[in-house]
Design goal:
The protein is mainly alpha-helical. It has four helices and two strands. It has a two-stranded antiparallel ribbon. Strand 1 and strand 2 form a beta hairpin. Helix 1 packs across helix 2.
Length: 93
C-alpha cells in the first residue's frame, strides 16, 4: 500500500516542478508531465520504507547511519531499474 501511495502522489510534485520551471523531461514515455520511470522508482523506494523504519526504530545511531547509506544505494538502484524497464527509449525499440 505504501508503494502505491508513493507512486500515486509523485505526479503532483512533478507538475509543481514543471510549473515552477525547475525541471522537465524529454525522450522518455510519460503520463502527463511525469515519466513512467519516476513513478516506478518512487514505488520501489516507498516499498523499502517500512522495513528501513522498523530496523532503525530504537536502535543505535550507527545502525541508522548504515540503514541511511543502504537506503541511498537503494534509491539509486530503484531509479536505475525503473529507468531501464520504463524510461529507456532504446529498450522499447
Amino acid at each position: 500500500m505504501i508503494g502505491l501511495i508513493g507512486a500515486i502522489n509523485i505526479p503532483l510534485y512533478e507538475q509543481w516542478a514543471k510549473n515552477a520551471n525547475r525541471l522537465f523531461y524529454r525522450n522518455t514515455s510519460m503520463i502527463g508531465n511525469t515519466p513512467w520511470y519516476i513513478i516506478g522508482g518512487e514505488f520501489l523506494i516507498a516499498m523499502t520504507l517500512p522495513v528501513a523504519m522498523s530496523i532503525v526504530e530504537k536502535r543505535h545511531w550507527r545502525t541508522s547511519l548504515l540503514i541511511g547509506l543502504t537506503k541511498g544505494l537503494l534509491i539509486w538502484g530503484a531509479y536505475a531499474l525503473a529507468f531501464y524497464y520504463c524510461g529507456n527509449p532504446v529498450i522499447r525499440q
